[in-house]
Design the sequence.
């Protein structure tokens, strides 16, 4: 022990120097490690973690308000999405109609179906075009796929359409290849099946034959597709024919209203028959 | 003795401040004289090596706090002071004032070189090579220190060294 103290006294200066140098090296090391920065960052992370926990805890109290706010945001977003989707759908339908090359749609009036009443007996459509847009009674309503119906009533901005699938609707249809004619009507039931009457048994009409409107019709322009023959059953004098309609009435959005075709001269030469035609046009 | 040590510590503080805020701005070839080294050399010559090493450590702490590089300054000043301690003139010696002055100058040069070498190795704000820093800057700083030490010795320290 005494030797140790003797050594310490003897080499005191050197030991002190070594001690000071060690402290200096320690400081250098601490400076290189950026202790202050580490402590600062650690403190920051610690306080941030505490704050986060507190925020989470306090958010429980404002949960109801937050939910209401999110509901408002959701409602707003939903309405925007619906508006945009509807607009996109309308635009697609409009483009589809305008892109159809089978007929010139430039003279036609475009309208949107705004209301409908479908049942197995009484069907009716309302379109958003009235006499202000030039729509008149007895105008033909159609889509590129085929005949939709006939305008039966017109107001300033709306018009009521009697569709093909109405028991009172009748139109003369002609077979595309053989030219056989008959009166197309719908007798209720399935909305995509109509019947054709007065096609003689001698006719060369075949299954899957396409039917279009003819010039005989008092309201419709000719050549509008009506449907295809899906069933033929011979009777005594005439065929009992079922037609699958060309138009899918379940997804009608945009329609075209064809200009009025009624020829005054034709009506006058038909004489007494005219009132009948106006009342129940073919 | 204690009073002398406290007085010396006060002087050390003042000199460190003067060095930091005035002398370090008077540069030639990016080198300035170091009054702290001169003071430590003076302490080394007039007191013993142990006291001087402690003063060097204290000076390192002070200059380190002022420059923001505590560890390196502590090491450099401690080493410089320790080395300068070998030029100590014992009280019972019969050295003439001229001999004491020479030892003081030698202590200034050696302490300056050691301090500068360590600071140059550890801190390189100008991006020079270590050899260039140690040789050129060390030589220039020692030269400036010597000139300043001669001036101070001639003006103030001569009497103290003689006593």
Sequence:
């Amino acid at each position: 022990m005494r030797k140790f103290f003797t050594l310490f006294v003897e080499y005191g200066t050197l030991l002190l120097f070594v001690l000071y140098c060690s402290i200096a090296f320690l400081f250098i090391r601490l400076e290189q490690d950026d202790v202050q920065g580490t402590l600062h960052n650690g403190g920051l992370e610690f306080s941030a973690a505490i704050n986060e926990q507190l925020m989470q805890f306090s958010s429980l109290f404002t949960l109801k308000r937050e939910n209401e706010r999110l509901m408002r945001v959701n409602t707003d977003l939903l309405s925007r999405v619906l508006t945009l989707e509807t607009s996109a759908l309308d635009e697609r339908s409009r483009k589809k109609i305008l892109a159809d090359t089978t007929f010139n749609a430039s003279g036609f009036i475009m309208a949107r179906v705004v209301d409908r009443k479908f049942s197995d007996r009484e069907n009716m459509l309302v379109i958003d075009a009235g006499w202000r847009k030039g729509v008149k009674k007895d105008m033909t309503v159609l889509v590129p796929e085929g005949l939709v119906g006939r305008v039966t009533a017109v107001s300033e901005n709306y018009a009521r359409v009697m569709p093909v699938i109405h028991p009172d609707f009748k139109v003369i249809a002609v077979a595309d290849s053989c030219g056989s004619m008959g009166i197309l009507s719908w007798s209720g039931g399935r909305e995509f099946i109509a019947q054709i009457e007065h096609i003689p048994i001698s006719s060369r009409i075949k299954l899957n034959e396409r039917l279009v409107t003819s010039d005989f019709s008092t309201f419709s322009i000719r050549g509008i597709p009506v449907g295809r023959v899906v069933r033929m059953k011979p009777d005594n004098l005439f065929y009992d024919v079922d037609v699958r309609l060309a138009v899918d009435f379940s997804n009608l959005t945009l329609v075209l209203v064809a200009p009025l075709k009624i020829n005054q001269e034709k009506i006058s030469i038909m004489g007494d028959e005219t009132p009948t035609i106006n009342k129940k046009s073919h | 003795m204690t009073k002398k040590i406290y007085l010396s510590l006060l002087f050390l503080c003042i000199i460190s401040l003067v060095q930091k805020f005035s002398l370090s701005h008077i540069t030639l070839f990016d080198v300035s004289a170091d009054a702290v080294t001169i003071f430590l050399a003076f302490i080394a010559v007039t007191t013993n090596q142990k006291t001087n090493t402690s003063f060097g450590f204290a000076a390192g702490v002070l200059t380190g706090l002022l420059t923001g590089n505590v560890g390196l300054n502590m090491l450099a000043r401690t080493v410089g002071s320790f080395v300068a301690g070998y030029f100590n003139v014992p009280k019972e010696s019969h050295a003439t004032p001229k001999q004491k002055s020479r030892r003081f100058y030698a202590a200034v040069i050696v302490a300056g070189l050691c301090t500068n070498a360590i600071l140059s190795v550890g801190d390189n704000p100008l991006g020079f090579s270590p050899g260039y820093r140690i040789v050129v800057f060390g030589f220039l700083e020692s030269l400036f220190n010597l000139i300043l030490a001669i001036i101070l010795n001639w003006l103030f320290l001569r009497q103290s060294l003689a006593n």
In short: The helical segments of chain B are 2-21, 35-46, 49-67, 70-84, 97-122, 130-162. The two ends of chain B are 15 Å apart (CA to CA).
